[in-house]
Amino acid sequence: MSKQPQAGREEILEYQVMWEPDSKKNTQMDRFRAAAGAASGLALENYDDLYHWSVESYPDFWAEFWKFSGIVFSRMYDEVVDTSKGIADVPEWFKGSRLNYAENLLRHKENDRVALYAAREGREEIVKVTFEELRQQVALFAAAMRKMGVKQGDRVVGYLPNGVHAVEAMLAAASIGAIWSSTSPDFGVNGVLDRFSQIQPKLIFSVEAVVYNGKEYSHMDKLQQVVKGLPDLKKVVLIPYVASKEKIDISKIPNSVFLDDFLATGKGAQAPQLEFEQLPFSHPLFIMFSSGTTGAPKCMVHSAGGTLIQHLKEHVLHGNTGSGDILLYYTTVGWMMWNWMVSALATGAAVVLYDGSPLVPTPNVLWDLVDRIGITILGTGAKWLAVLEEKQLKPGGTDIISCFMGQNFSVPVYRGEIQARNLGMAVEAWNEEGKAVWGESGELVCTKPIPCQPTHFWNDENGSKYRKAYFSRFPGVWVHGDFCRINPKTGGISMLGRSDGTLNPNGVRFGSSEIYNIVEAFEEVADSLCIPQYNKDGDERVLLFLKMASGHSFGPELVKSICNAIRVGLSARHVPSLILETKGIPYTLNGKKVEVAVKQIIAGKAVEYRGAFSNPEALDLYRDIPELQDF
User: Fold this and answer.
1) On the CB side of 486, how many CA atoms lie within 13 Å of its CA?
2) What is the CATH number of the domain that holds 512?
3) Can you supply one Gene Ontology CC term for this chain's record (predicted)?
């Protein structure tokens, strides 16, 4: 791994500091750095020293963190990892060890301490579940699952909102050694079947209806069609969520049962005991899915041990999370941040589950929860923050199921940058020649093995899909598909958009986010989409589509102003060849802007998997645009 150029403190000061770490605060990162320094015999004086040790001596780093984290296990490992194998070989980690993911999340014995808070749109009540109550419910769910024949390796899925029962069902499946996967209720029938039909679940949990943005949406017709498309299902468990059980008709759904009747099958003369199957570190825990915007979603299998140790590292070291914390990340069960958030239970922290719109009845919903519950850690995607900025509100982060980079209590926050590369993640930005570059845009790559990479893809027996997804660009090196820039002076990272949508007009390679950062500062623009268009000779030009903000109109003066801003802020070669108005920008169900599918449509290709989009009708806006026909 190449070492980044160093910079003095006086050079770094030219970047705007948004937050400085408290030098008097002894964080868990500080304590780990001291322990790692003592164990290695090295003077690890700061985060930069610790980071470089963690990627250069990665087996020692992960062994030291295993010890520091207090992972619960029944058998110690024989070997951390075979260092003769690279990241493309997907080496086995912590060989010989036995553990259980759910046991680690439920290990905290302060029975009356709150583990989960659950809040919902339109309801004033906040439900509290203690660690003891959570253990009892997980035991009951697991007993009922075992009674119906769920065993190690079976797939258990949730078509569920972000609530307590989703956590209980997931932990119960994990306690048995079954594999959990989930999608949220905003997924349409095709979107769900594109995912679940590939993994053939035995059991599904769902609800009859959800509430979002002030409106109730019945779930029953969708659920009926989903069940019809999953012939291997043995049981459908319906959880009354909006209406009472008496008002819900499940007679049209085969093999269906209400939750309380399902759980009753697990009850005996005495309450069931919580049992944790002791499994290899590499045992499958979750199946996560790619977005599916350009083809069938990839089914990425993540191990129990890899997920656990990586999430613990991020929560304990990078987030300084502990038993005194209360964490809320605004997410759905269809995004990997839900799995990441729930893993915080392993630190003893409480987790807040919120289901509904973050803007109803006011944009202050999440901030109000911060005040009411005493949330100490709040996380969200960029889209919600952009909406708050639009509304001028002044209030008082799937492939690796975790993060290559992120928050860090040890280093400052600089405006426009993610703080630092995470420990153990040998991340670099590479140019087209496969050379590390600093201070300029490049492919986000990871050069050394990590325990959180997928063990394999489901239904990919020879591994060809896996290799094509990550290792076809630079052999032996993980290419994540994102464009980034690593600041050599601060160590911070700027994300520049998907590299499969990289723009390269006249040999100038840049990411769409560089354009968005300038364009969306214009109050006239509500949203934008920047993509390349190619002609039959392979020449490329850049197209910029603008969705206008309410009360503003598209016109030549605005186009001129935007072109000038891009020319001044970036360069003349960044200026789009054509700027057009659009009435809609397509997004995935997880709120990510879609560029590649629009690029396909403009090239005259069909987009098969429309179920992957939250607003598939927006795709049709880009068909047969007259201004694009003569290129």
Assistant:
1) 27
2) 3.30.300.30
3) cytosol
CA distance 349 to 332: 19
DSSP letters along 366-396, please?
HHHHIIIII-SEEE--HHHHHHHHHTT----
Average pLDDT of the residues in 468-478:
91
Report the number of distinct structural domains present in the chain: 2
Hey, how many other C-beta atoms are within 10 angstroms of the C-beta on 328? Answer: 23
Q: Which residues contact 283 (CB under 8 A, 6 or more apart)?
A: 152, 177, 303, 304, 305
Cα separation, 94 vs 476, in Å, equals 21
Q: Is the pTM of this model over 0.85?
A: no
Please say whether the beta carbons of 307 and 313 come within 8 A. Answer: no
We report the CATH number of the domain holding residue 82 as 2.30.38.10
Indicate whether 9 pLDDT > 60: no
449 and 523 co-located in one domain: no
- Give domain status of residue 279, yes or no: no
φ and ψ at residue 113, rounded to 5 degrees: -80, 140
> Based on the number of CB atoms within 10 Å of its own CB, is 367 exposed (0-12), middle (13-18) or buried (19 or more)?
middle
Whether omega for the bond prior to residue 363 falls within 30 degrees of 0, making it cis, is: no
Other Cβ atoms within 10 Å of 481 Cβ, number: 17
DSSP 253-294: STTEEEHHHHHHTT--SSPPPP----EETTSEEEEEE---SS
pLDDT greater than 50 at residue 212: yes
Give φ, ψ of 613 to 5 degrees: -105, 145
Q: Which residues of 503-518 are buried (b: 16+ CB within 10 A; e: fewer)?
A: bebeeebbbbbbbbeb
Q: Does the structure show a pLDDT above 50 at 586?
A: yes
Whether the pLDDT of residue 240 is over 80: the answer is yes
- DSSP β-bridge partners for residue 542: 532
The helix or strand, by DSSP H or E, that contains position 235, with its residue range, turns out to be strand 235-239
Please tell me whether residue 43 adopts helix, strand or coil conformation.
coil
- Helix (H) or strand (E) segment spanning residue 563: helix 556-569
pLDDT at 8: 39
Average model confidence (pLDDT) across the chain: 91
- The answer to whether 494 touches 485, Cβ cutoff 8 Å, is yes
The string of pLDDT tens digits covering residues 310-326 is: 999 999 999 999 999 99
Beta 540-548 vs 525-534: how paired, if at all? antiparallel
Indicate the residue among 442, 466, 494 that finishes a domain.
494
Q: Pick from 173, 148, 174, 141: which is nearest to 234 by CA?
A: 148
Kindly list the distances between the CA atom of residue 363 and the CA atoms of 195, 278, 338, 352, 390, in Å, as whole numbers in the listed order.
32, 45, 21, 18, 11
Alpha helices (H) in 23-163, listed in sequence order: 28-40, 47-56, 58-69, 101-105, 131-147
Same domain, 513 and 463: no
Same domain flag for 451 and 554: no
DSSP string covering 318-343: IS---TT-EEEE---TTSHHHHHHHG
Last residue of some domain: 494, 512, 527?
494
Torsion of CA 546, 549, 550, 551, to 10 degrees: -90
578 and 489 both lie in a single domain: no
From the number of C-beta atoms within 10 Å of its C-beta (0-12, 13-18, 19+), residue 268 rates as exposed
Interior CA angle at 630 toward 629 and 631, to 5°? 100
In a domain, 436, yes or no: yes
Beta strands in 425-557 (DSSP E): 427-430, 441-446, 456-457, 478-486, 493-498, 525-534, 540-548
Which pLDDT value is given to residue 589?
Answer: 79
Task: Give the whole-number percent of the chain exceeding pLDDT 90.
Answer: 71
Range of the domain at 617: 502-628
528 within a domain of the structure (yes/no): yes
Residue 5 CB partners (closer than 8 Å, separation 6+): 438, 488
